[in-house]
Amino acid sequence: MIITDVKTTLVKVPYGRPPGFRPSWLPGVIQESYSFTIVQIFTDEGITGIAGTTCFGDEAKVFVDREIRPILLNKELESTSGIEGIWGEIRSKADGKPMISMLLSGAGEGNTIDWGGIVKSVLRSPWNTLSLFSSKNILLEDRPWFVNVALWDLIGKKENRPVCDLIGRKKDKIKVYASTGEIVSSKTVEFAMKCLDEGFKTIKLRAHHADPDKDLDVIKKVKDAVGGEMEIGVDANQAWTVLPPFWSRKRALEVAKSLDRMGIAWFEEPVGGKDFKMIAEIADAVEMPIMGGELQHGIETLEKLLDAYDIVNPDISMSCGISDGIKIAEMARKRDKLFTPHAWQLGPGIAANLQVACVLENCPMLEYPYDPNWSVEQRDLLLEESLIVENGYLEVPKKPGLGVEINESIIEKYTVV
Ligand SMILES: [Mg+2]
């Protein structure tokens, strides 16, 4: 099978509920749409490998078009063992060239990030700051990991098997946690009860107020409302050092201790992602597991994180790809640690994380974006069929490759470049 063409497409898919979505990890920013890059790898056998990833603007598209497409063109690929060779070449080419630098330098033909919109959103924020990309802990380096996912999709389709079967399926379905994306509010208790009614066993809440007591107050109310019937995870997104508020180390430790006393199931990103010492200190101070790793990239960094976090959550599409993802999960298993993939993504990104989650012994759950202000229908608009949860579990699709088909007309409708 010879690779004959590689096409990348940047789409912006509307969140669908005006005025937009307020991500906890970008306080003060209101997003009207979700930016996502799709890669399609075409072959002489008529099989096409597809994958996609979250992005800011056209950084992933520009990077793949310029650096990766020339490597892939005319390459022969017959089986999963062939992926490693091609991927090694891509990895060496990509090293030291973060995709985000392409974006910041405006290298693209059509640099489509909406800087004006972001600045306006920031000015509306209570901190009135323009500290975008100023923090020392910034972790927006990126790599074309989703291209690795598309190569696995290609082989799965060629062999007519789901990707999880190419690696070694351990389960047919995985428990998912309802992952909210907006900061906790007076409506959070009602939404948590709705999730419980729908069969979710676990929910994740977002804590990112400048005064964490406001977060703790809502989290306590949710805990009281759901009792022992649903586990609660809390994500502070403090490794997202793009916009304040940033908690001090002392405050992060106090919040961790409060959550631990409350019986919270895990606490995610209490401090900056490269603050390994403090992550480990917090993890030692509480019984509750500390989780992180979604913003780090590559085996070397993620291996260091395994010494700090109790649970790592790299995203297969965004942080490591499938080839390296299964290696990192094995490193975690040997250290008796868990690997629960981040999957705050549009449909194709969730599908990649789902395939990997179903092959890992040390993966008890998967993230499932589910927020009152973002419907599953909008989230999975790029797919022919939505990824629907049943009684708190998500089943791995029966179709080959990633098991999902993308809706070409929707992609065409929302294509930016
Ligand atoms: Mg997170």
Can you describe this structure?
The protein has 417 residues and is α/β, with parallel strands linked by helices. It has 15 helices and twelve strands. The protein has two domains: 3-161, Enolase-like, N-terminal domain (Enolase-like, domain 1, 2-Layer Sandwich), CATH 3.30.390; 166-402, TIM Barrel, CATH 3.20.20.120. 39% of the residues lie in helices and 16% in strands. Helix 8 links the parallel strand 5 and strand 6. Helix 7 runs parallel beside helix 8 and helix 11 (298-306) packs across helix 12. The model is unreliable at 101-113 and 124-141 (pLDDT under 50). The structure holds magnesium ion (MG).
Radius of gyration: 20 Å
Class of secondary structure makeup: alpha/beta
Mean pLDDT: 89
| General shape | globular
Q: Low-confidence segments, ≥5 residues, pLDDT <50?
A: 101-113, 124-141
Strand content: 15-25%
The CATH topology of the largest domain turns out to be TIM Barrel
Ligand roster:
magnesium ion
Order of helices and strands: EEEHHHHHHEHEHEHEHEHEHEHEHEH
CATH class of the largest domain: Alpha Beta
Relevant terms:
39% helix, 3-stranded antiparallel sheet, TIM Barrel, binds magnesium ion, globular, alpha/beta, Enolase-like, domain 1
Draw up the topology in text.
Elements: E1 3-14, E2 33-43, E3 48-54, H1 59-72, H2 80-94, H3 99-104, H4 115-124, H5 145-159, H6 163-167, E4 173-183, H7 188-197, E5 202-206, H8 212-226, E6 231-235, H9 249-262, E7 266-268, H10 276-285, E8 290-292, H11 298-306, E9 311-312, H12 316-334, E10 338-339, H13 347-357, E11 366-369, H14 376-379, E12 393-395, H15 408-414
Helix pairs in contact: 1-2, 5-12, 7-8, 8-9, 11-12, 12-13
The protein binds magnesium ion (MG).
